[in-house]
Design brief:
Elements: H1 20-34, H2 41-48, H3 52-59, H4 62-77, H5 91-106, H6 116-119, H7 129-150, H8 156-178, H9 183-194
């Protein structure tokens, strides 16, 4: 059973029901903003409106919650689905669409800055090495997925090299966005990067 932390209701009505999706969204944004090590369990329970036993019951421990939040981030950001690139005839068009979409997402004022997947756990305490490895594996998986997609326009070696390059560009764009770069600057970087993948 999920127990919501008691909150006073001005209407005196029934307590609100547990919304797992909304709670996960809250956790995702906290981790996105502050990183895994920058968010305490107490901050999570307070922000999500859950008592500690209920958070454990719904999501497991903090590590499991973080990885589920990363999964959610990946789905929302399209990190596991590049099928939209199939609509383009040339590699230039496909790559520009990918990088412009990245620029738009990274500069969206309604979300946190930077990229949870590309910037998460780049440095961490040894106790959290498994989580850092998990995120590294996910970044590697994205590069492999991108290489597979680029094979529509490029041969195997060129596709693999292009995917490594574009992954580095995307990571750099994430850092730029985190430091305050707006959409215009990120799209400028996108246009420059397209020239290198041919």
């Amino acid at each position: 059973m999920i127990i919501m932390k008691p909150r006073k209701s001005p209407s005196g009505g029934r307590p609100r029901e547990f919304d797992r999706d909304a709670a996960l969204e809250t956790a995702m944004r906290l981790f996105w903003r502050h990183g895994y090590e920058g968010v305490s369990f107490q901050q999570l329970t307070a922000a999500m409106g859950l008592a500690a036993p209920s958070l454990y019951a719904a999501f497991g421990n903090k590590r499991a919650l973080y990885l589920e939040a990363v999964d959610r981030y990946g789905r929302l950001r399209g990190a596991t689905d590049l099928s939209f690139m199939d609509q383009y005839e040339t590699v230039d068009e496909a790559v520009l669409a990918l990088l412009n979409a990245t620029a738009h997402g990274l500069s969206d004022p309604s979300t946190e800055t930077g990229c949870m997947l590309n910037m998460g756990m780049l440095t961490s305490h040894p106790d959290h090495a498994e989580i850092a490895t998990e995120l590294s594996d996910r970044r590697t998986a994205f590069t492999a997925l991108l290489a597979q997609k680029l094979q529509r326009w490029l041969d195997g070696e060129a596709a693999a090299d292009g995917a490594v390059y574009l992954s580095a560009v995307i990571q750099g764009m994430a850092v730029q966005a985190h430091d305050g770069a707006g959409r215009e600057r990120l799209e400028m970087l996108a246009k420059l990067a397209v020239r290198a993948v041919r």
